[in-house]
Write a structure and sequence with these properties.
- This protein has ten helices and 18 strands.
- It has a domain of about 60 residues: 2-Layer Sandwich (Double Stranded RNA Binding Domain).
- A hairpin with a 6-residue loop joins strand 17 and strand 18.
- It is of the alpha+beta class.
- The strands form nine sheets. The chain has a two-stranded antiparallel sheet. A two-stranded antiparallel sheet has the order 3-4.
- The chain starts with a helix and ends with a helix.
Length: about 260
Amino acid sequence: MKQHQVTHTVERPYCCDVCNKTFREGRNLKVHQRVHTGECPYRCAVCNKTFWKQGSLKEHQRVHTGERPYGCDVCNKTFKKRGTLKVHQRVHTGERPYRCDVCNKTFSETGSLKVHQSVHTGERPYHCDVCNKTFRGTGNLKEHQRVHTGERPYGCVVCNKTFRKLGNLKVHQRVHTGERPYQCELCNKTLRTLEHLTAHQRVHSGERPYRCELCNKTFKQMEHMKVHQRVHTGERPYSCEVCSKAFSHKCVLKRHLSYCNQQS
C-alpha cells in the first residue's frame, strides 16, 4: 500500500548512487542500475540479442513476429512501439513539443531537436569510415554510406526504380500519382517538391542566388550554374555510345544521337 501511495506523490525516495537519478519504486532503480553495470539478463530466443529491460525484449521480438499492435486511430498506420505511435500522432495533431533554446524552432521528436542543435554548435560527431565525411545524425550517416555500398533499399512498386533515401522514393511516387502538393501563391502553379517550388518562385522574384565565381554570371538554380561552369572547365560529361563524341549538355547529346543513329 505504501509503495502504491508513492505514485500519487512527487516523492522519489530511491536514488542511484552512480548518477543520482531518483525513482519512486525500488524495482525501477534496480532496472536502471543495469545501465551502469551493463547487465542484460533478457535474451531473445531467436537471435540471442540481450536487453536490460523485459519490455525492451518484448518490443524487439516484434521484429521477428511482425506484430504491430499499436494503431493510429486517424490513418490506421500501425507500429511496433507505443512510443513510435505517440510520435507519429503528432503528424495529425501538429504538436511539436521540443523547442530549440537558440532559435525557438520546434520539433515533434527529441532526436530531431538534438540533430538540429548541432547546426548551432557545429558538432558533426558521426563520420564515415570510408571517406571520413562527417554528419550531424546517425540517419544522415547511414544514408551516406549507401553511396559506398550501392545499397538502394527503397523500391517503387509501380516501376521498380530504387532509391537510397525514403524521401526520394516518396517524391518519385508523385510521378505515378500525379500529386503536386506545393502551390505557388502568386500564379497557382503546382509542383511536386518544395525545392521545385522554391526555384519556381524566383521567376516572380527575379532572385538569382547562384553566382559563377569565374565570370560573375548569376543563375536561378544551382544546376544551371553547374552546367554553365563547364564553359570554363571544358568538362564534357555526356558521351555518345556510337562515336564517342562528348558533350557538355545532355540535350545536345540527345540531338546528336538522333543524327548519329540515322547515319549508322
